[in-house]
Prior knowledge:
single chain; alpha/beta; Rossmann fold; eight-stranded mixed sheet; two-stranded antiparallel sheet; 12% strand; globular
Amino acid sequence: MFGNGTEEDLQDKVYILVTGANSGLGFSICCRLVDEFLSSPQRANQSLTVIFTTRSPKKGNDTQLRLQDHLRNTSTTPSRVTFVPESVDLNNLVSVRALSRRLNEEYPKLDAIVLNAGIGGWTALNWPRAIWGVLTDLVHEVSWPSYKIAPTGMVTDYQTTTLADQEPRLGSVFCANVFGHYMLAHNVMPLLRRSGQPNGPGRVIWLSSLEATRKMLDVEDLQGLRTAAPYESSKALTDLLALTADLPSTAPFVKSFYSVEGNHVSNGGFGRPRVADDDDSLPNMYLSHPGICGTGILPLSWPLFYAMIAAFYLARWLGSPWHTVMTYFGACAPVWLALSAQSVLDAAESTYRQHGGGRTKWGSSCNLLGKDCAASTEVDGWGYGGVVGPAVVEEDRQRRRKRGAVDLTAEDKVEFEEMGRKCWQKMEDLRIEWDKLLDLAEVSPDDFGLGF
């Protein structure tokens, strides 16, 4: 689609993939990517291609028109930006593989992938608990709600037609929020490992949630099929995967995930040789969340939606650092991770690493006046950036904490790292199992056409 280009040409071109972009946070991430890219003096001679996914071509075309309207209304140099719609259903691994193959065949590289798409899985609210909680404990209840109701055991449709009797069932929230993205990221690893300049190594940016906590995840129920909180379980799994990805204990499984050997959907693309399967081109994995902003992920009527937005503003005025309210502000952290120079991100993590920590969960934060920034977020079992003891960064010490939060202990950190190791092992085992099944399905004519 974009033709062959020399390595020098590619240094001036940035390619970023955003999933789930037809509305809400994903759409705002695309808009903010464009705004910050075009306003950056360091990128004055570069171009940006935003590849975004929706669940259907119609939604993709509609989203493209809206993004082009945003570009025309906010930029004097719209020719430097290209929007490309793609379709994928993350609950359909055949569809994920089809998208992966198109990307590998049509693009020279990917500098970042922003894994935003997902579902909540909630079907109702416990209204008495919600009303009481908001009236008596507003900030906590609109930050870490206890009143959302989701059914247990929700699974995807069968992924294939001829091999259904061989398929392990997949939890629908798990597949949409984690596993579909996991398969996609592995499949496009050749593109990520070609990134290089201008950003540095390719980046895998996971979108998590402020609500994620390891207590919501049972490693023996990784897909959340037995829990009444499958969304929170999926986001806790996201945290564990991203925050432990550079630890020695997870290295064998992460190396397998990053591997390009035996890639099932790549033919090298553009006639290029395969990327060498070494450590010189490994991507970086980052974790972010949008704070608390108003999206359609929770099923609410319009009057209740606006009542929710009013409660969010009130929580911010009462001292919450996380109520970004508007999805454009919620896009702050993931866009910062996608576009910042590698030296900037390394510097932001340096204090944590100097004190024995590691990766940080970066959240979109707003002050009382609505000024947004990317802020380190405390994680149950990982603290601030994996540093044992009190927060070592002044801004972290001043930020309002979740009620009941305690400083990270060495024992809790060891437990978190061990959970991360087990999660990585199980995810790789599941990926390998499904790659084999999908390979078999591809040789069966009855399974053709399931992808987009």
